[in-house]
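Allow me, if you will, to draw on your knowledge of protein folds for a short while. I am sending you one protein, given as its amino acid sequence and as whole-number tokens for its backbone shapes. Kindly check, if you would, that the fold set down in the tokens agrees with what the sequence suggests. The record follows directly beneath this note:
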Amino acid sequence: MLKIATLTTRGFGSSRSRHNLCEKVVRFTSIMAFLLRVGDTVKATKRSLFSLCGKPRALPALAFLIPTFVRAIPEILMGPFVVGFDVLAYNIPNTLLWLRGSVSAANFVGSAPLFYLLLMGITYAGVPIVFSVKVLSPLLLGFLGLAVFYYAKKSLLWSSRKSLLVVLFATLYFVALRVSWDMLRSELSLIFLFVTFFFLEKRGGSTKNWLLLSFSMIAVVATHQLVAVIMLFVVLLTTFGLAFGRDAKEATKLICCSMPAIFFFLLVSANYSLSLGVAAPFISFPGLTSNGWLSLFGFASKANLTIDSLGFLVVCYLPLLPLLYLGFKRRISPHLEAWILWILIAVSVAVITAYVFFGILPYRWILLLTFPFAFVAAEGFAQLTKRKDKIVISSAMVFLSLSFVVLPSGFTLPYFSLFSHYGPASMLQNTVPLSDCHDTLNALDWAGNNFGNESRLLVHDAFYGWAILTINDEQLIPYGYNDPEAVATELTQNGSGYQLYLIWWINGTGWHGQPNVPDSFAQVYRSGNIAIYSLNSDNDVFSLQKTSDFPCSVESSKRRLW
């Protein structure tokens, strides 16, 4: 899960602060130069794009290419580094560990492993995993756009232009881009979900359609649990509608078609419960306080959870409010309306009763609301009659999306930082901002070159993916979002003879709700804002200030990542 915190504000009086400020200015200038270079290309292709929009046959290609191109921009600007928190913190480590056999049956089945199986297959074939996810991320958004396009055109019978319009809202609105930033499993599952909706509309056809519907439902369940819940709720309401509409035969067929997916979902849920160590799918909010990451969100009470969740809902969809108001005046689709209804139920249950589904906080449901809202917003946009209104709204949407895609940390819109613990203010980061990526590699390379056999590195979730790509995983002790000092103390009390180290930001600059390092750790190496600390160590402090005499250069670090 994503837990991003803003950088602690620092003064500008010191030389180090001035250096950081200059570095940010240089990086911002380089990004602007990149945008100016591509500006001429954009202008040159503008007429071609408008020409293509007038050709219905070309619109499906645009539904794929436009989201793919936009999602590729942060991948290009990030250079060799991965985009997305969950991608680096969980997807990559899990894939590498599972390839080595380090996974239990409960964890494997309970994780809805289809995405991992795909990534494992690509990695096993010899493709570097970092390269894989950097290419796969834009492609997934492109295929999602294609699935949305054909659902709107074939199932809702919308025109090709209107179908392309909903693709733009469903893939390029900043909330949809937030989903594409690191929720790759959700994206893949959403692709299968729209395929399921397509066959659900054609359920009265041949046996082949029923079989394809059943397989697509299984694919949804096999890819992501939350999207599977949405799908099953939609199927449930569809079945009730058929039964009460005196079409019992069709309802019976739909139930039979859904049974494999339902049984598989129960299997996934049971194994997920085993992996979490809980007996019920709904966990009360007080029961979550033992998890270290929850303290990051700052929920001191149920009221705090309610206010925070509702505030995030408003921030996500306030820019779409005029279009949603117009769009809701017309019926869109029973499937999409059921989708919206379920998310409102799930969020309401969480904020009213403080019970959450398998520990999933409401913000995850709120993010998934962007896709049915995209259809409502497209319907509302189509009802605008004044060209001026369309230009103003289009410009606002483009401004929000481009700001989220190209502006680096430190230059982001304040609007995106209102709920930074639920999502990044910029796509140009993973578990650390782009400005700290090289320093993170430098610090881990130093650790790899200087650690002995009895050395162990305590790694927060933010650095676990980095570390497993650069250091022997047997020398890593992941501690999630817990207190590293408490973990180190427990290890010492249990008789651990290891020399313990910690990787974190230098004091005053830490992310993820931990601006400072506990006093029991002493800094032994530093590269920029990233440092290696030793528990109760008297070692000398090493420092690197962007010099070229580092024993493992940035280029070699890149090769190790790729």
Residues 521 and 535 are 5 Å apart (CA to CA).
